[in-house]
Amino acid sequence: MSIDEGTAAKVAKLARIKVDPADLPVLAQEFNTILGFIEQLNEVDVEGVEPMVSVTPMRLKRREDVVTDGDQQGKVLSNAPDAREGFFAVPKVVE
């Protein structure tokens, strides 16, 4: 598959990218280079290869799922500009 200048202009318009008409030949060549790389990837035999989520076989560290009180109300409210009775105080916005 080959991308010409007209197709490159259409892609730029769809991507909402302003491209100077003088730069369209260079853009078309870059698209053709990218498509060449994709064609090379299509030639790779992946029969029997399982899909990967990551290149490193690591599992995410998980914490124990325990419901707690948090016990940090004072820390949370310490930076509030106005806190009353253990809650954030905000200006009234509805009459």
UniProtKB/TrEMBL annotation:
Molecular function per GO: ATP binding; glutaminyl-tRNA synthase (glutamine-hydrolyzing) activity
Domain of life assignment: Bacteria
Gene3D superfamilies (alphabetical): Glu-tRNAGln amidotransferase C subunit, N-terminal domain
EC number: 6.3.5.-
Catalytic activity, reaction form: L-glutamyl-tRNA(Gln) + L-glutamine + ATP + H2O = L-glutaminyl-tRNA(Gln) + L-glutamate + ADP + phosphate + H(+); L-aspartyl-tRNA(Asn) + L-glutamine + ATP + H2O = L-asparaginyl-tRNA(Asn) + L-glutamate + ADP + phosphate + 2 H(+)
SUPFAM superfamilies listed in its UniProt record: Glu-tRNAGln amidotransferase C subunit
Tagged with keyword Nucleotide-binding: yes
InterPro entries documented for this protein: Asp/Glu-ADT_sf_sub_c (IPR036113), GatC (IPR003837)
Leader sequence residues: none
Entry's Gene Ontology BP terms: glutaminyl-tRNAGln biosynthesis via transamidation; regulation of translational fidelity; translation
Keyword vocabulary terms for this entry: ATP-binding, Ligase, Nucleotide-binding, Protein biosynthesis
UniProt keyword annotation of Cell cycle present: no
Subunit details: Heterotrimer of A, B and C subunits.
UniProt cross-references to NCBIfam families, sorted A to Z: gatC
Family affiliation: Belongs to the GatC family.
Function per UniProt: Allows the formation of correctly charged Asn-tRNA(Asn) or Gln-tRNA(Gln) through the transamidation of misacylated Asp-tRNA(Asn) or Glu-tRNA(Gln) in organisms which lack either or both of asparaginyl-tRNA or glutaminyl-tRNA synthetases. The reaction takes place in the presence of glutamine and ATP through an activated phospho-Asp-tRNA(Asn) or phospho-Glu-tRNA(Gln).
Protein name: Aspartyl/glutamyl-tRNA(Asn/Gln) amidotransferase subunit C
Organism of provenance: Primorskyibacter flagellatus
Gene: gatC
